[in-house]
Specification:
It is globular and about 70 Å long. β8 (183-187), α7 and β9 (215-219) form a beta-alpha-beta unit. It has a 7-stranded mixed sheet with strand order 1-11-10-4-9-8-7, sandwiched between helices. It has helices at residues 11-16, 63-70, 98-101, 121-131, 136-150, 165-178, 195-211, 247-258, 263-282, 326-334, 356-359, 379-390, 397-406, 422-435, 452-466, 479-485, 503-512, 522-525; strands spanning 6-7, 21-32, 40-48, 52-57, 80-88, 91-92, 105-108, 183-187, 215-219, 232-237, 240-245, 286-297, 300-311, 315-319, 341-346, 349-350, 363-366, 440-444, 471-475, 488-493, 496-501. The protein contains 18 helices and 21 strands. The chain has 3 domains: 1-101 and 215-259, Rossmann fold, CATH 3.40.50.300; 263-362 and 439-525, 3-Layer(aba) Sandwich (Rossmann fold), CATH 3.40.50; 368-437, no CATH class. Helix content is 36%, strand content 24%.
Amino acid sequence: MGNNTYMSNSQANINANMHNECIEIANLNFTYYGSETPALKNINIDIKQGEFVVITGMSGCGKSTLAMAIAGYIKDGTQGELQGRIDINEKNVSHCHIEQLAGQVGIVLQDPEAQLCTFSVREEIAFGPENLCLSEKDIISRIDVASKRVGIERLLDNDINQLSGGEKQRVAIAAMLAMEPTILILDEPTANLDPNGARDVLLTLQKIKQTTKHTIIVIEHRIEQFLSLADRIVLMEKGQIVYDGLPTAGYAYYQHLFNKTDKKVKESLYAHKKYLKQKLEENTADMLQVMNVNIDIDQKRILSDISFNIKAGELVAVMGRNGCGKTSLFLSLLGIYQTRTGNIVLDGKDLNGIVTEQRAKDIGLTFQNPNHQIFEKSVYQEMILPYSFLRDNPVDDELISQLLKELSLDGYKDIPPYNLSLGEKKRLILGEVMAYNPKLLLLDEPMAGQDKQHVDFLMQMLFKHCNQGKVCMVACHQPQVVFEYFDRVLFFDDGKLLYDGKPLLVFELLTENGYSGYDSRCGHNEW
Protein backbone atom coordinates (compact mmCIF):
# COMPACT_ATOMS: atom_id res chain seq x y z
CA MET A 1 0.00 0.00 0.00
CA GLY A 2 1.04 3.59 -0.53
CA ASN A 3 2.10 5.64 2.46
CA ASN A 4 -1.12 7.67 2.27
CA THR A 5 -3.33 4.60 2.80
CA TYR A 6 -4.64 3.22 6.06
CA MET A 7 -4.94 -0.58 6.13
CA SER A 8 -6.94 -2.16 8.96
CA ASN A 9 -5.12 -4.59 11.25
CA SER A 10 -7.47 -7.38 10.24
CA GLN A 11 -6.85 -6.97 6.51
CA ALA A 12 -4.10 -9.59 6.60
CA ASN A 13 -6.66 -12.13 7.79
CA ILE A 14 -8.81 -11.44 4.74
CA ASN A 15 -5.88 -11.70 2.37
CA ALA A 16 -4.81 -15.02 3.88
CA ASN A 17 -8.17 -16.55 3.02
CA MET A 18 -8.07 -15.47 -0.63
CA HIS A 19 -6.25 -16.87 -3.64
CA ASN A 20 -3.42 -15.25 -5.59
CA GLU A 21 -3.61 -11.66 -6.73
CA CYS A 22 -5.58 -11.23 -9.94
CA ILE A 23 -5.20 -7.43 -9.93
CA GLU A 24 -1.92 -5.71 -9.00
CA ILE A 25 -1.63 -1.94 -9.25
CA ALA A 26 1.66 -0.16 -8.52
CA ASN A 27 2.39 3.58 -8.40
CA LEU A 28 -0.51 4.47 -10.71
CA ASN A 29 -0.96 8.13 -11.63
CA PHE A 30 -3.26 9.57 -14.29
CA THR A 31 -4.12 13.12 -15.40
CA TYR A 32 -6.76 13.91 -18.04
CA TYR A 33 -5.73 16.19 -20.89
CA GLY A 34 -6.84 19.74 -20.11
CA SER A 35 -6.81 19.19 -16.34
CA GLU A 36 -4.14 20.44 -13.96
CA THR A 37 -5.26 18.10 -11.17
CA PRO A 38 -4.43 14.36 -11.35
CA ALA A 39 -7.47 12.09 -11.37
CA LEU A 40 -5.39 9.30 -9.78
CA LYS A 41 -2.43 9.81 -7.44
CA ASN A 42 0.01 7.10 -6.38
CA ILE A 43 -2.50 4.23 -6.39
CA ASN A 44 -1.07 1.02 -4.92
CA ILE A 45 -3.44 -1.87 -4.36
CA ASP A 46 -3.62 -5.65 -4.85
CA ILE A 47 -6.93 -7.50 -5.22
CA LYS A 48 -7.05 -11.26 -4.89
CA GLN A 49 -9.11 -13.77 -6.81
CA GLY A 50 -12.54 -14.18 -5.25
CA GLU A 51 -12.53 -10.90 -3.32
CA PHE A 52 -15.58 -8.62 -3.23
CA VAL A 53 -14.24 -5.05 -3.04
CA VAL A 54 -16.31 -1.87 -2.74
CA ILE A 55 -14.61 1.35 -3.84
CA THR A 56 -16.23 4.53 -2.57
CA GLY A 57 -15.64 8.23 -2.07
CA MET A 58 -17.08 11.59 -3.06
CA SER A 59 -18.25 12.26 -6.60
CA GLY A 60 -15.22 13.03 -8.80
CA CYS A 61 -12.68 11.41 -6.46
CA GLY A 62 -11.35 9.06 -9.18
CA LYS A 63 -13.39 5.88 -8.60
CA SER A 64 -14.66 5.54 -12.16
CA THR A 65 -11.30 6.50 -13.63
CA LEU A 66 -9.66 3.71 -11.62
CA ALA A 67 -12.29 1.23 -12.80
CA MET A 68 -11.75 2.21 -16.44
CA ALA A 69 -7.99 1.90 -16.03
CA ILE A 70 -8.32 -1.62 -14.59
CA ALA A 71 -10.53 -2.64 -17.51
CA GLY A 72 -7.95 -1.33 -19.99
CA TYR A 73 -9.97 1.59 -21.36
CA ILE A 74 -7.56 4.23 -20.08
CA LYS A 75 -3.95 4.07 -21.23
CA ASP A 76 -1.11 6.51 -21.53
CA GLY A 77 -1.67 8.89 -24.44
CA THR A 78 -5.36 8.11 -24.99
CA GLN A 79 -7.32 10.48 -22.73
CA GLY A 80 -4.38 11.74 -20.71
CA GLU A 81 -1.01 10.91 -19.20
CA LEU A 82 -0.69 7.65 -17.26
CA GLN A 83 2.22 6.41 -15.20
CA GLY A 84 2.60 3.21 -13.21
CA ARG A 85 1.53 -0.36 -13.83
CA ILE A 86 -1.65 -2.46 -13.76
CA ASP A 87 -1.37 -6.25 -14.02
CA ILE A 88 -4.41 -8.48 -14.61
CA ASN A 89 -3.64 -12.14 -13.98
CA GLU A 90 0.08 -11.30 -14.28
CA LYS A 91 -0.37 -9.53 -17.65
CA ASN A 92 0.46 -5.83 -18.03
CA VAL A 93 -2.76 -4.09 -19.09
CA SER A 94 -0.88 -1.46 -21.07
CA HIS A 95 0.41 -4.22 -23.38
CA CYS A 96 -3.02 -5.81 -23.92
CA HIS A 97 -5.67 -4.89 -26.47
CA ILE A 98 -9.23 -4.46 -25.22
CA GLU A 99 -10.34 -7.68 -26.92
CA GLN A 100 -7.65 -9.60 -25.01
CA LEU A 101 -9.08 -8.34 -21.72
CA ALA A 102 -12.74 -8.88 -22.65
CA GLY A 103 -12.79 -12.47 -21.45
CA GLN A 104 -11.06 -11.53 -18.19
CA VAL A 105 -12.58 -8.18 -17.16
CA GLY A 106 -16.21 -7.17 -17.57
CA ILE A 107 -17.32 -3.63 -16.70
CA VAL A 108 -20.77 -2.06 -16.45
CA LEU A 109 -20.38 1.69 -16.84
CA GLN A 110 -22.20 4.45 -14.95
CA ASP A 111 -23.88 5.28 -18.24
CA PRO A 112 -25.20 1.91 -19.51
CA GLU A 113 -26.24 3.37 -22.86
CA ALA A 114 -22.57 3.95 -23.65
CA GLN A 115 -22.06 0.19 -23.99
CA LEU A 116 -25.36 -0.93 -25.55
CA CYS A 117 -24.91 -1.49 -29.26
CA THR A 118 -27.78 -3.63 -30.60
CA PHE A 119 -31.53 -3.21 -31.06
CA SER A 120 -33.11 -5.84 -28.82
CA VAL A 121 -32.36 -7.09 -25.32
CA ARG A 122 -31.76 -10.65 -26.54
CA GLU A 123 -29.32 -9.45 -29.20
CA GLU A 124 -27.46 -7.31 -26.65
CA ILE A 125 -26.89 -10.20 -24.26
CA ALA A 126 -25.88 -12.47 -27.15
CA PHE A 127 -23.45 -9.94 -28.64
CA GLY A 128 -20.49 -10.76 -26.38
CA PRO A 129 -20.76 -14.57 -26.53
CA GLU A 130 -21.17 -14.36 -30.32
CA ASN A 131 -17.89 -12.47 -30.56
CA LEU A 132 -16.28 -15.22 -28.50
CA CYS A 133 -17.39 -17.61 -31.30
CA LEU A 134 -19.42 -19.82 -28.94
CA SER A 135 -21.87 -22.38 -30.27
CA GLU A 136 -25.54 -21.42 -30.69
CA LYS A 137 -26.46 -23.77 -27.84
CA ASP A 138 -23.98 -22.11 -25.47
CA ILE A 139 -25.09 -18.62 -26.50
CA ILE A 140 -28.75 -19.45 -25.83
CA SER A 141 -27.79 -20.92 -22.46
CA ARG A 142 -25.82 -17.80 -21.46
CA ILE A 143 -28.71 -15.53 -22.49
CA ASP A 144 -31.08 -17.58 -20.35
CA VAL A 145 -28.80 -17.63 -17.28
CA ALA A 146 -27.79 -13.95 -17.47
CA SER A 147 -31.32 -12.64 -18.02
CA LYS A 148 -32.66 -14.65 -15.07
CA ARG A 149 -29.87 -13.44 -12.79
CA VAL A 150 -30.97 -9.81 -13.21
CA GLY A 151 -34.69 -10.46 -13.67
CA ILE A 152 -35.21 -9.27 -17.25
CA GLU A 153 -36.59 -12.43 -18.87
CA ARG A 154 -39.81 -10.57 -19.79
CA LEU A 155 -37.78 -7.94 -21.66
CA LEU A 156 -35.75 -10.27 -23.91
CA ASP A 157 -37.66 -9.40 -27.08
CA ASN A 158 -38.08 -5.70 -26.32
CA ASP A 159 -36.51 -2.84 -28.24
CA ILE A 160 -33.66 -1.40 -26.14
CA ASN A 161 -34.58 2.16 -27.13
CA GLN A 162 -37.97 1.72 -25.46
CA LEU A 163 -36.51 0.69 -22.08
CA SER A 164 -36.21 2.94 -19.05
CA GLY A 165 -32.79 3.93 -17.75
CA GLY A 166 -32.95 1.36 -14.96
CA GLU A 167 -33.95 -1.41 -17.35
CA LYS A 168 -31.04 -0.52 -19.65
CA GLN A 169 -28.72 -0.78 -16.66
CA ARG A 170 -29.88 -4.32 -15.92
CA VAL A 171 -29.46 -5.25 -19.59
CA ALA A 172 -25.86 -4.01 -19.46
CA ILE A 173 -25.21 -6.11 -16.34
CA ALA A 174 -26.72 -9.19 -18.02
CA ALA A 175 -24.61 -8.63 -21.15
CA MET A 176 -21.49 -8.43 -19.01
CA LEU A 177 -22.43 -11.59 -17.06
CA ALA A 178 -22.95 -13.46 -20.32
CA MET A 179 -19.26 -12.99 -21.12
CA GLU A 180 -18.38 -14.90 -17.90
CA PRO A 181 -15.27 -12.82 -17.10
CA THR A 182 -13.22 -13.63 -14.01
CA ILE A 183 -13.30 -10.00 -12.86
CA LEU A 184 -16.60 -8.10 -12.67
CA ILE A 185 -16.56 -4.30 -12.27
CA LEU A 186 -19.85 -2.52 -11.67
CA ASP A 187 -19.86 1.28 -11.59
CA GLU A 188 -22.84 2.52 -9.52
CA PRO A 189 -24.93 -0.59 -10.37
CA THR A 190 -27.98 0.48 -8.31
CA ALA A 191 -27.90 4.23 -8.97
CA ASN A 192 -30.82 4.26 -11.45
CA LEU A 193 -32.79 1.33 -10.03
CA ASP A 194 -35.96 1.33 -7.95
CA PRO A 195 -35.78 -0.45 -4.56
CA ASN A 196 -36.93 -3.77 -6.01
CA GLY A 197 -34.47 -3.54 -8.89
CA ALA A 198 -31.64 -2.67 -6.51
CA ARG A 199 -32.52 -5.63 -4.31
CA ASP A 200 -32.47 -7.94 -7.36
CA VAL A 201 -28.98 -6.73 -8.30
CA LEU A 202 -27.76 -7.27 -4.73
CA LEU A 203 -29.18 -10.80 -4.69
CA THR A 204 -27.52 -11.43 -8.05
CA LEU A 205 -24.13 -10.32 -6.73
CA GLN A 206 -24.63 -12.38 -3.58
CA LYS A 207 -25.34 -15.46 -5.69
CA ILE A 208 -22.29 -14.82 -7.88
CA LYS A 209 -20.10 -14.45 -4.82
CA GLN A 210 -21.41 -17.62 -3.20
CA THR A 211 -21.35 -19.86 -6.26
CA THR A 212 -18.34 -18.67 -8.28
CA LYS A 213 -14.75 -17.51 -7.86
CA HIS A 214 -15.35 -14.19 -9.58
CA THR A 215 -13.52 -11.15 -8.30
CA ILE A 216 -16.14 -8.42 -7.90
CA ILE A 217 -15.42 -4.69 -7.73
CA VAL A 218 -18.33 -2.34 -7.05
CA ILE A 219 -18.02 1.44 -7.37
CA GLU A 220 -20.73 2.90 -5.13
CA HIS A 221 -21.79 5.82 -2.93
CA ARG A 222 -24.55 4.09 -0.96
CA ILE A 223 -22.25 1.47 0.50
CA GLU A 224 -24.43 0.37 3.43
CA GLN A 225 -26.34 -2.02 1.14
CA PHE A 226 -23.08 -3.81 0.22
CA LEU A 227 -21.61 -4.21 3.72
CA SER A 228 -22.77 -7.82 4.11
CA LEU A 229 -21.23 -8.76 0.75
CA ALA A 230 -17.93 -6.89 0.81
CA ASP A 231 -14.62 -8.34 1.96
CA ARG A 232 -12.97 -4.92 1.76
CA ILE A 233 -13.84 -1.28 1.40
CA VAL A 234 -11.48 1.06 -0.41
CA LEU A 235 -12.08 4.73 0.29
CA MET A 236 -10.78 7.36 -2.16
CA GLU A 237 -10.39 11.10 -1.75
CA LYS A 238 -9.04 13.51 -4.38
CA GLY A 239 -7.56 10.71 -6.49
CA GLN A 240 -5.87 8.90 -3.61
CA ILE A 241 -6.66 5.81 -1.55
CA VAL A 242 -7.09 6.92 2.06
CA TYR A 243 -8.47 3.66 3.53
CA ASP A 244 -8.30 0.00 2.55
CA GLY A 245 -9.69 -2.46 5.07
CA LEU A 246 -12.65 -4.17 6.71
CA PRO A 247 -16.16 -3.01 5.69
CA THR A 248 -17.44 -2.09 9.15
CA ALA A 249 -14.50 0.17 9.97
CA GLY A 250 -14.47 1.52 6.43
CA TYR A 251 -18.15 2.44 6.63
CA ALA A 252 -17.59 4.26 9.92
CA TYR A 253 -14.66 6.14 8.40
CA TYR A 254 -16.75 7.02 5.34
CA GLN A 255 -19.56 8.34 7.54
CA HIS A 256 -17.05 10.40 9.50
CA LEU A 257 -15.49 11.96 6.40
CA PHE A 258 -18.37 12.42 3.98
CA ASN A 259 -21.79 11.52 5.32
CA LYS A 260 -22.45 14.36 7.73
CA THR A 261 -25.60 16.35 7.07
CA ASP A 262 -24.69 19.93 6.25
CA LYS A 263 -26.12 22.38 8.80
CA LYS A 264 -27.05 24.68 5.91
CA VAL A 265 -29.38 22.11 4.35
CA LYS A 266 -31.29 21.82 7.63
CA GLU A 267 -31.62 25.60 7.76
CA SER A 268 -32.74 25.64 4.09
CA LEU A 269 -35.29 22.89 4.81
CA TYR A 270 -36.74 24.88 7.73
CA ALA A 271 -36.96 28.06 5.63
CA HIS A 272 -38.65 26.12 2.82
CA LYS A 273 -41.25 24.53 5.11
CA LYS A 274 -42.01 27.97 6.57
CA TYR A 275 -42.35 29.48 3.09
CA LEU A 276 -44.58 26.67 1.80
CA LYS A 277 -46.85 26.83 4.85
CA GLN A 278 -47.38 30.54 4.20
CA LYS A 279 -48.10 29.96 0.48
CA LEU A 280 -50.62 27.20 1.23
CA GLU A 281 -52.38 29.42 3.78
CA GLU A 282 -52.72 32.11 1.10
CA ASN A 283 -54.68 29.55 -0.96
CA THR A 284 -53.20 30.82 -4.22
CA ALA A 285 -53.99 29.27 -7.60
CA ASP A 286 -52.20 26.08 -8.63
CA MET A 287 -48.95 26.61 -10.51
CA LEU A 288 -49.32 23.32 -12.42
CA GLN A 289 -52.53 21.49 -13.34
CA VAL A 290 -52.51 18.13 -15.10
CA MET A 291 -56.02 16.97 -16.00
CA ASN A 292 -56.98 13.56 -17.39
CA VAL A 293 -53.81 13.23 -19.48
CA ASN A 294 -53.31 10.14 -21.64
CA ILE A 295 -50.12 9.44 -23.60
CA ASP A 296 -49.75 6.82 -26.35
CA ILE A 297 -46.44 5.80 -27.95
CA ASP A 298 -46.50 3.45 -30.96
CA GLN A 299 -50.17 2.69 -30.24
CA LYS A 300 -49.34 1.65 -26.67
CA ARG A 301 -50.73 3.59 -23.71
CA ILE A 302 -47.87 4.60 -21.41
CA LEU A 303 -49.70 7.14 -19.21
CA SER A 304 -53.35 6.61 -18.34
CA ASP A 305 -55.78 9.25 -17.04
CA ILE A 306 -53.19 11.24 -15.05
CA SER A 307 -54.53 14.12 -12.92
CA PHE A 308 -52.85 16.19 -10.20
CA ASN A 309 -52.32 19.82 -9.16
CA ILE A 310 -49.17 21.40 -7.69
CA LYS A 311 -49.02 24.67 -5.76
CA ALA A 312 -46.27 27.27 -6.21
CA GLY A 313 -43.35 26.43 -3.92
CA GLU A 314 -43.94 22.68 -3.73
CA LEU A 315 -41.07 20.20 -4.01
CA VAL A 316 -42.53 16.98 -5.39
CA ALA A 317 -40.92 13.54 -5.76
CA VAL A 318 -42.05 11.37 -8.66
CA MET A 319 -41.50 7.73 -7.74
CA GLY A 320 -42.22 4.21 -8.97
CA ARG A 321 -40.47 1.19 -10.41
CA ASN A 322 -38.31 1.46 -13.52
CA GLY A 323 -40.51 1.82 -16.60
CA CYS A 324 -43.61 2.99 -14.71
CA GLY A 325 -43.92 6.29 -16.61
CA LYS A 326 -41.92 8.88 -14.64
CA THR A 327 -39.74 10.00 -17.55
CA SER A 328 -42.73 9.85 -19.91
CA LEU A 329 -44.59 12.26 -17.63
CA PHE A 330 -41.71 14.74 -17.79
CA LEU A 331 -41.46 14.46 -21.57
CA SER A 332 -45.20 15.07 -21.93
CA LEU A 333 -45.06 18.17 -19.70
CA LEU A 334 -42.32 19.61 -21.91
CA GLY A 335 -44.22 18.65 -25.08
CA ILE A 336 -41.74 16.12 -26.43
CA TYR A 337 -44.50 13.50 -26.03
CA GLN A 338 -47.86 14.73 -27.29
CA THR A 339 -50.95 14.21 -25.11
CA ARG A 340 -53.63 12.11 -26.74
CA THR A 341 -56.28 13.57 -24.46
CA GLY A 342 -56.31 15.87 -21.45
CA ASN A 343 -54.93 19.28 -20.53
CA ILE A 344 -51.77 20.70 -18.98
CA VAL A 345 -51.91 24.21 -17.50
CA LEU A 346 -48.82 26.04 -16.20
CA ASP A 347 -49.25 29.29 -14.28
CA GLY A 348 -52.68 29.80 -15.83
CA LYS A 349 -51.55 29.10 -19.41
CA ASP A 350 -52.99 26.10 -21.26
CA LEU A 351 -50.02 24.33 -22.90
CA ASN A 352 -52.05 22.46 -25.51
CA GLY A 353 -50.83 23.56 -28.92
CA ILE A 354 -47.67 25.16 -27.53
CA VAL A 355 -44.54 23.61 -29.02
CA THR A 356 -41.57 22.32 -27.03
CA GLU A 357 -39.33 25.27 -27.97
CA GLN A 358 -41.81 27.68 -26.36
CA ARG A 359 -42.53 25.49 -23.34
CA ALA A 360 -38.78 25.23 -22.63
CA LYS A 361 -38.73 28.93 -21.66
CA ASP A 362 -40.84 28.09 -18.61
CA ILE A 363 -39.98 24.40 -18.12
CA GLY A 364 -36.45 23.12 -17.51
CA LEU A 365 -35.75 19.39 -17.90
CA THR A 366 -32.63 17.42 -17.00
CA PHE A 367 -32.45 13.95 -18.55
CA GLN A 368 -31.61 10.79 -16.64
CA ASN A 369 -28.60 10.44 -18.94
CA PRO A 370 -26.71 13.78 -18.90
CA ASN A 371 -24.79 12.86 -22.05
CA HIS A 372 -28.00 13.53 -24.01
CA GLN A 373 -27.76 17.22 -23.06
CA ILE A 374 -24.05 17.91 -23.46
CA PHE A 375 -23.07 19.71 -26.68
CA GLU A 376 -20.23 22.15 -25.98
CA LYS A 377 -16.45 21.78 -25.74
CA SER A 378 -15.99 23.26 -22.27
CA VAL A 379 -17.88 23.21 -18.99
CA TYR A 380 -18.35 27.00 -19.06
CA GLN A 381 -19.71 27.01 -22.63
CA GLU A 382 -22.10 24.21 -21.69
CA MET A 383 -23.32 26.13 -18.62
CA ILE A 384 -24.37 29.19 -20.65
CA LEU A 385 -25.87 27.33 -23.65
CA PRO A 386 -29.57 27.11 -22.61
CA TYR A 387 -29.51 30.67 -21.20
CA SER A 388 -28.20 31.94 -24.56
CA PHE A 389 -31.12 30.37 -26.43
CA LEU A 390 -33.95 30.89 -23.96
CA ARG A 391 -33.30 34.33 -22.48
CA ASP A 392 -32.93 37.71 -24.19
CA ASN A 393 -30.65 39.23 -21.55
CA PRO A 394 -26.85 38.86 -21.76
CA VAL A 395 -25.33 35.99 -19.82
CA ASP A 396 -24.66 36.88 -16.18
CA ASP A 397 -21.05 35.72 -15.71
CA GLU A 398 -21.24 36.34 -11.96
CA LEU A 399 -24.27 34.04 -11.68
CA ILE A 400 -22.57 31.34 -13.78
CA SER A 401 -19.42 31.50 -11.65
CA GLN A 402 -21.49 31.26 -8.47
CA LEU A 403 -23.39 28.21 -9.77
CA LEU A 404 -20.17 26.48 -10.83
CA LYS A 405 -18.76 27.03 -7.34
CA GLU A 406 -21.93 25.76 -5.62
CA LEU A 407 -21.87 22.66 -7.83
CA SER A 408 -18.14 21.99 -7.13
CA LEU A 409 -17.36 22.50 -10.81
CA ASP A 410 -15.44 25.78 -10.66
CA GLY A 411 -12.12 23.96 -11.11
CA TYR A 412 -13.32 22.37 -14.38
CA LYS A 413 -14.45 25.54 -16.17
CA ASP A 414 -12.24 25.05 -19.24
CA ILE A 415 -12.17 21.24 -19.58
CA PRO A 416 -14.39 19.16 -21.89
CA PRO A 417 -17.65 18.10 -20.15
CA TYR A 418 -17.20 14.49 -21.28
CA ASN A 419 -14.17 14.20 -18.99
CA LEU A 420 -16.43 14.67 -15.95
CA SER A 421 -17.80 11.83 -13.86
CA LEU A 422 -21.50 10.94 -14.11
CA GLY A 423 -22.26 12.82 -10.90
CA GLU A 424 -20.38 15.88 -12.11
CA LYS A 425 -22.18 15.79 -15.48
CA LYS A 426 -25.53 15.65 -13.69
CA ARG A 427 -24.60 18.67 -11.60
CA LEU A 428 -23.48 20.52 -14.75
CA ILE A 429 -26.81 19.88 -16.50
CA LEU A 430 -28.70 20.96 -13.38
CA GLY A 431 -26.66 24.15 -13.22
CA GLU A 432 -27.29 25.12 -16.84
CA VAL A 433 -31.05 24.66 -16.39
CA MET A 434 -31.15 26.60 -13.13
CA ALA A 435 -29.14 29.42 -14.71
CA TYR A 436 -32.17 30.54 -16.74
CA ASN A 437 -34.54 30.01 -13.76
CA PRO A 438 -37.67 28.37 -15.30
CA LYS A 439 -41.01 28.24 -13.48
CA LEU A 440 -41.06 24.44 -13.47
CA LEU A 441 -37.99 22.24 -12.92
CA LEU A 442 -38.21 18.61 -14.04
CA LEU A 443 -35.21 16.61 -12.81
CA ASP A 444 -34.88 12.98 -13.88
CA GLU A 445 -32.76 11.06 -11.33
CA PRO A 446 -30.45 13.96 -10.38
CA MET A 447 -29.26 12.16 -7.22
CA ALA A 448 -27.87 9.14 -9.08
CA GLY A 449 -24.08 9.17 -8.85
CA GLN A 450 -24.07 11.83 -6.10
CA ASP A 451 -22.55 11.49 -2.64
CA LYS A 452 -24.34 12.75 0.49
CA GLN A 453 -22.65 16.14 0.52
CA HIS A 454 -23.62 16.89 -3.07
CA VAL A 455 -27.19 15.70 -2.46
CA ASP A 456 -27.34 18.20 0.41
CA PHE A 457 -26.07 20.95 -1.91
CA LEU A 458 -28.64 19.91 -4.52
CA MET A 459 -31.46 20.12 -1.98
CA GLN A 460 -30.39 23.62 -0.93
CA MET A 461 -30.59 24.73 -4.56
CA LEU A 462 -34.04 23.17 -4.99
CA PHE A 463 -35.35 24.78 -1.80
CA LYS A 464 -34.08 28.14 -3.04
CA HIS A 465 -35.81 27.64 -6.39
CA CYS A 466 -39.12 26.64 -4.80
CA ASN A 467 -38.97 29.56 -2.38
CA GLN A 468 -39.21 31.90 -5.39
CA GLY A 469 -42.75 30.62 -5.96
CA LYS A 470 -41.63 28.04 -8.51
CA VAL A 471 -42.13 24.26 -8.67
CA CYS A 472 -39.65 21.35 -8.66
CA MET A 473 -40.58 17.81 -9.68
CA VAL A 474 -37.85 15.21 -9.13
CA ALA A 475 -37.82 11.58 -10.28
CA CYS A 476 -36.06 9.73 -7.50
CA HIS A 477 -35.41 6.14 -6.34
CA GLN A 478 -34.10 7.07 -2.88
CA PRO A 479 -36.96 6.87 -0.33
CA GLN A 480 -34.73 8.09 2.50
CA VAL A 481 -33.96 11.37 0.69
CA VAL A 482 -37.62 11.85 -0.25
CA PHE A 483 -38.79 11.14 3.30
CA GLU A 484 -36.40 13.67 4.79
CA TYR A 485 -36.68 16.56 2.34
CA PHE A 486 -39.69 16.42 -0.01
CA ASP A 487 -43.14 17.91 0.48
CA ARG A 488 -45.08 15.36 -1.52
CA VAL A 489 -44.88 12.11 -3.49
CA LEU A 490 -46.54 11.12 -6.76
CA PHE A 491 -46.15 7.34 -7.00
CA PHE A 492 -46.69 5.72 -10.40
CA ASP A 493 -47.24 2.08 -11.31
CA ASP A 494 -47.74 0.75 -14.84
CA GLY A 495 -48.52 4.18 -16.29
CA LYS A 496 -51.06 5.14 -13.64
CA LEU A 497 -50.85 7.56 -10.70
CA LEU A 498 -51.32 5.19 -7.78
CA TYR A 499 -50.74 7.45 -4.75
CA ASP A 500 -50.47 11.20 -4.19
CA GLY A 501 -49.65 12.57 -0.74
CA LYS A 502 -47.04 13.36 1.89
CA PRO A 503 -44.05 10.96 1.93
CA LEU A 504 -44.92 9.35 5.27
CA LEU A 505 -48.49 8.57 4.20
CA VAL A 506 -47.50 7.29 0.74
CA PHE A 507 -44.69 5.08 2.10
CA GLU A 508 -47.02 3.56 4.70
CA LEU A 509 -49.58 2.77 1.99
CA LEU A 510 -46.87 1.24 -0.21
CA THR A 511 -45.60 -0.94 2.64
CA GLU A 512 -49.14 -2.07 3.53
CA ASN A 513 -49.72 -3.04 -0.10
CA GLY A 514 -46.57 -5.12 -0.52
CA TYR A 515 -44.13 -2.64 -2.06
CA SER A 516 -40.76 -3.34 -0.47
CA GLY A 517 -38.08 -0.73 0.18
CA TYR A 518 -40.37 2.11 1.27
CA ASP A 519 -40.23 1.78 5.04
CA SER A 520 -41.19 5.17 6.46
CA ARG A 521 -38.38 4.90 9.01
CA CYS A 522 -35.67 4.81 6.33
CA GLY A 523 -35.18 8.55 6.33
CA HIS A 524 -33.94 8.61 9.91
CA ASN A 525 -31.07 6.21 9.87
CA GLU A 526 -29.50 5.75 6.47
CA TRP A 527 -28.70 7.62 3.31
